[in-house]
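Q: Study each token:
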Amino acid sequence: MHRRTLGKLSAALLFPKPFLSARAAGGGTVRIGWLRAPNDITTGRARGTLEQALAALGAKVEWAGPFPAAAPALEALNAGSIDITAGSSTACIAALAARIPMVIFAYQKMSAGAEGILVKQDSPIQGLADLRGRSVAVNRGGTGEYLLMRALEKNGIDASGVKRVYLSPSDSGAAFRQGHVDAWATWDPFIAIGLKSYGARVLADGAAIGSGNAVTLMASRDFVEQKQPLLQAVFQTCLAENAWARQNKAEAGRIWTEAMSIPAGLAPTIGENNAVPTRGVTDADIAQIEQIADWYVSSRIVPRRPDIGAGVVKLTA
């Protein structure tokens, strides 16, 4: 018994508690799918802090991507190729409705300036009511379509009178620039690109639209269940990176524009729009996502509302 006690004491001295916790959680590799997007994972990747935090727990990071959007990243998560990624609350709803085994572990309400409906500077469209009989570029079932439909609903405008043109974000930009559509419902970095390079102005921002959209961080359910200490380390690091970005918006904007391969001149706008607080998911956040999910169901984008609460793990700093 004395030898066993000494053995335990030696292990405690050689391997601090966080390391032992990581070992118990499986240690090894954390596979993170990163997006060309302004979020805390992108910041942590660029600054090396996620690797440092996980290395302290005896784990290493394997980066996958960059993914062009949340949907393909969530497909990779569903296939078991990655453990963690980022996206929007709209992407979460579609993933949970499709029974992808994922869990939301962080929530970042999007700023008003990071979403909106754009028109050309010389467009005769002056208000949302002027969209009647006009065409608007959106991504089918995604943030763009949500923003447009939410704006129309909030302002009592019959959606059947507005033509939705379903395009990818990159194709939407080209169609808008060339005048093939009258308006474009989109988000950053496309908002900043449209304003800087496509001669756009904001018809309605996220506040005018009444958007409840957010950036979310997500993990596979297996990872959450089996490697909780490593998930907590990722969460803590993302919170720290978020605090740094809010204190250093211009530098954060530079990191994000570089990651997204867009002009460095957009960094101040991108930093200002996207360096907003991240937190663990609250009951109010779940209710907000549920409201968007209700719209998804009523719009027949998903057949039934998924159980959002069951798709959340509540972490605290």
User: Anything to note?
Assistant: The chain is about 45% helix and 20% strand. The chain has a mean pLDDT of 90. The longest helix spans residues 228-247.
